[in-house]
Amino acid sequence: MAAIAGTKSSLTWAVHLSLVAMVLLWLFPTAGLLVSSFRTSDQIATSGWWKSLGASEQNLTLRTGGAADQVNRDNKFVIEGNLFGEASEAVISVWGTSSRSISDYSAGDTAELKNGETVTVQANGDYIMEHSEEFTGKRGQRIFATAKTPPEFTLRNYNYMLFDPTNREGMAKAFFNTLTVTIPATIIPILVAAFAAYALAWMDFPGRALLIAVVVGLLVVPLQLALIPLLKLHNEIGIGKGYLGAWLAHTGFGLPLAIYLLRNYMVGLPRDIIENAKVDGATDFQIFTKIILPLSFPALASFAIFQFLWTWNDLLVALVFLIDSTGDTTVMTKQIVELLGTRGGNWEILATSAFVSIAVPLMVFFAMQKYLVRGLLAGSVK
Amino acid sequence: MHPALQAVLTIVIGVGGCVGYFYFSNQFLDKVLFPGTGPNAGRNISRANMVRPWLFLFPAFAALSVYLAYPVIETLRLSLTERLPGNESQFVGLQNYQNMFNEPKFWEAMRNNMMWLLIVPAFSTAFGLLAAQLSDRVRWGNLAKSLIFMPMAISFVGAAVIWKLVYDARPIDQDQIGVLNALYLFFGGTEPQNWLTIPGWNNIFLMAVLVWIQTGFAMVILSAALRGIPEETVEAAIVDGANPFQVFFKIKVPQIMGTIVVVWTTITIVVLKVFDIVFAMTNGQWETQVLANYMYDKLFRANDWGVGSASAMIIMLLVSPILIWNVYNARKEMQ
Question: Which domains, ranges and CATH numbers included, belong to chain A?
Fold first, then answer.
């Protein structure tokens, strides 16, 4: 805008920087969870996730081999090996033999212990322990090392949470249950709402304005009010708790927005097309199925995304109408809440299960953002 | 039956049933009830056209009545009755409301809800406006918008996990893994804090989660409104020597005031219903109770339907002004 008036704004840089800061701030929390889900529980517990992106300096407690590993060489008893156990890219800078002085020695130095033993630790973790007498004790000497480890990520968490049949907390079943709730609960309201929206948009009958007002009013009715009456109703007519009840509830709760969005869109379709079709002898049913429905695709898509996100992410409806005492029909949101209670500190489990549940909506979001934005604009700006 | 099969079957029956209902009832109307041929063809066709709208409306409004209208009335009734053993109930007048008003937890929930109502819409709208204005002026604005908008797709429960990691606290002698504590210590804090257990402040930390989610919504709507502002008004202001801040606050904001109000009220409604975040993060402990979670507690933990319904009615009451305002606007617009 400033450019139009011919003066280049000195604020340009400030704008760029503020926007970068804002985007980073908004991205940072999610990134934290995503990165954490690819780290092992040890890594998560010992250092902040933001440090994992570069080589990190960690304080490690390692142990040499025990007496069982010793060999007798030139009248000396020797234990040899690598502190990391296997080939590792970690590089030890300083180390010590007691938790109070963890940086007494540099890599390559030899430490003398109080009973005459000597220990030499190399940067790559190779150590050699020597003593004139035989080593005793099953457990080896503790080494406190400060090591630089390269970033390291693993898919193990996802494997464990999704594909491990022995894991009773696995997300596979809940994922599947969520999908089972979501798909019918997304498709059915669209169809029901589309016919009603057409009637409200293009058919003339007494009381139309009143019905539209009713829909607008129901748009904001909190679904909290519906919990007990509907649960009672479901119990009385024999649905009880289960998928059917959840599908019906989601359909009912989604309808006001569906009718409202679709009607607003359909009203905006060109009158000529519809009147020409009428003149040509098309019935209302034909006009609806052959003309209105295909033309309304963007609005249908918008609502479908809303309803999908809402049902996928829902917790309350699932808690009340779906999940019974057996827990066989538990959905991901409920399972995550449970894990938050029981596995509060196990971030590798929490992060992974949360991301399993977040991944699908995010994909839908990025793939169909255009329709989501369009729907939001139609739904709230009048 | 396997749930997957059941789901597929439901889709088939549901979709087939809907299509079948609309198609066959329409056929029935035209061919059997009021056939458009024979002696009364003209009258029959107009009669059929009078009935048809109701045919199209019936399933939707039946569902709306059962799933939204009836519960409002039934909840009102339940809030005035007491449950007796054996599926009986007894009219108790306003007793449930009185019990509720005597409970400190209820007032805690009310107080917190009011704070939520003030803070979350205000900050979401302000940040949304800021993001909309900033992203409007740079070439990578669309990318920035996508990323700020993204939390909209994340469930409240997912967001709760994300932010619990941000608020995580470790003992002082360990590396902090929650970024808030890491920053706090970095900037001179003495001891890691358990943010979610500090009464008063913890509400703010819970609200931050919802602000984070809702900002994207506000941004999308407001950014469209900003683009709708006539260019001439802005140019005229610049020619008259207005600086960018004046252009923004004196020219642009007044012109999109209507949209700001809509965004504000929409977020207000979301806030009134907020449940998942509190349920998953603190479950109302440490003085973070809110109405929706209080109600859930009453209904499903204490099994007190009377007080639970009474608190649901309070939520309804708080929503009502917005409901009336929306209906009023919708009617005005249709005339």
Answer: 12-52 (no CATH), 55-149 (no CATH), 160-380 (1.10.3720.10)
